Amino acid sequence: MINKAVITYRELLDWGASFLKRYDIEEAVARWLLFERLGWTLTDFVRQSEQVVEAGVRQQFEQDIKQAATHYPPQYIVGHEWFMDYPFKVTEATLIPRPETEAWFSQYVEQLPDRSLTVVDVGTGSGVLAICHKLARPQDTVWAVDISEAALAVARENAAHLGAEVQFLCGDLLKPFIESNEYREIDLIVSNPPYIGAEEWDDMDQSVREFEPKLALFAADQGLALYRQLAKQAAQLLSESGQLIVEIGFRQGEAVQKIMQASFSHRIVNIGQDFNGLDRLVHVK
Hints:
Helices cover about 45% and strands about 20% of the residues. With about 280 residues, it is of the alpha/beta class. The strands form 2 sheets. It has a 7-stranded mixed sheet, sandwiched between helices. The protein has a two-stranded antiparallel sheet with strand order 1-2. Helix 2 (about 30-40) crosses helix 4.
């Protein structure tokens, strides 16, 4: 607790940053929590930093900081994360969207043809890829699939809140489409599947390891199992001019490229890098 009856926003933020530092948590987390709760930018803070903090704001921030000190993700604390400048609800049933995913999404969506496409987001989680695609390209028919009903509930809520007309299905990868025969000509499949191998457990950040959903993180066969399944299924559904884009772990580029090339022997399969120059996606053209 802060041992002052009256405190300014600057003092409150300094206390929060100092508190988190004792638990080896970045001081920036304190600023993010305060700004997200208040809907502030850095400019807002500069203008109001010397104002006295209201009791309710102070109480909420102290509670948030104590929770963050346990390595609980700040996005779960406030209940949302931003993706492509849209706020997405996140819970412990969904992964927290990453900047690396946002980077490759923005690249591919700008290069698609103007005609209407049928698009499927496999393993949609909170729905960021499917929803942002629909918002960027309203002419496309967009489906989102996830094996987790809890994740789909969050994704549906995000779609409704953001006004994106996305169709949701519960199922294992592309099985709902194969079994229904409803779509045999999918133009674009995108996926950020579970790709972490069990042997990487000790390398993971504590907040990810303890709180984000393991169903959305881990896959067998050194993280490659779902790529093998997805490649075989996609080969049955992708249109002649269709594309498949999957996010990968930075060590998996060549392995996933070989998996995809085996199912798509007559197509070009490229590895794409993220803004740090690390392998981040495999693209079947």
